[in-house]
């Protein structure tokens, strides 16, 4: 019999600790081994209890979740799930936490712990999945430099899909895109409350313009469009100067927005598209990337050594959807090279 996933809950709210404990303990494959009201107590519990996963509150007195996460990832890397309020400050810190190495995040409504209880099935799956991650070290955060690539760019569109570990990967990749790059459409699995803040943070730190996608927008060069989380799938209509469509629909492969849905819509461009699939758990994007490659698009997958979770890229590679696997650091040059005229 599989041993249960051992979880430590860190949250300054006694009522929220009780809610999370109740949610997780209802799963026989999860064991809550401890609950800490603040990071100093949590540090001792991590040493003595050796949990598989830590759930970490973002905003706490004494030491905030972000500072504690930095210590965890430096001293004892392990899977951490951030539990955040829906405030702008909470979202900003959560995005930074994902960039620093937290494997996932879940929205925690301020003053309404019952909502996270209604989302209990998702939270339990998130914890079980997190236990499977091999977290090696804290990522090195650096400002990437756009590669200097000679040659004229083709009239193309770039489509990118990512999930677990994708926040860090996208900061690296998008940060290396030049001002005049082709339009870029991105699906990153992320709660709806965080995608707007994620786009704003990328926009502040990158050369290119980064926005949360709006239905009906005509895409343009030098702009990256992040699919909004939650209610819609993002698709492309028209050619490389076409428009964004946000389509309400059922989950596809357990996701909305789905990387597969985006890639399939982009496959209509044939050779006028470039696709890349980055770190993430599961197989979302594999079939869509295959459709792109079969239609004539250039396609790339992040290699195992540079992935936080080599799930989505592996699935795409095994289906024959990936033309070439490259490291995260080599991905900008590979994508931009594929956008050049031969």
From TrEMBL:
GO terms for cellular component: cytoplasm. Keywords: Chemotaxis, Cytoplasm, Hydrolase, Phosphoprotein. It is an enzyme of class 3 (hydrolase). Pfam families: CheB_methylest, Response_reg. Its EC number is 3.1.1.61, 3.5.1.44. It catalyses: L-glutaminyl-[protein] + H2O = L-glutamyl-[protein] + NH4(+); [protein]-L-glutamate 5-O-methyl ester + H2O = L-glutamyl-[protein] + methanol + H(+). Phosphorylated by CheA. Phosphorylation of the N-terminal regulatory domain activates the methylesterase activity. Residues 6-123 form the Response regulatory domain. PROSITE patterns: CHEB, RESPONSE_REGULATORY. GO terms for molecular function: phosphorelay response regulator activity; protein-glutamate methylesterase activity; protein-glutamine glutaminase activity. It is found in: Cytoplasm. The keyword Cytoplasm applies. GO terms for biological process: chemotaxis. Residues 150-342 form the CheB-type methylesterase domain. The active site is at 163, 189, 284. The modification 4-aspartylphosphate is found at residue 57. Contains a C-terminal catalytic domain, and an N-terminal region which modulates catalytic activity. HAMAP family: CheB_chemtxs. NCBIfam families: PRK00742.1, PRK12555.1. Involved in chemotaxis. Part of a chemotaxis signal transduction system that modulates chemotaxis in response to various stimuli. Catalyzes the demethylation of specific methylglutamate residues introduced into the chemoreceptors (methyl-accepting chemotaxis proteins or MCP) by CheR. Also mediates the irreversible deamidation of specific glutamine residues to glutamic acid. Belongs to the CheB family. This is Protein-glutamate methylesterase/protein-glutamine glutaminase. The gene is cheB.
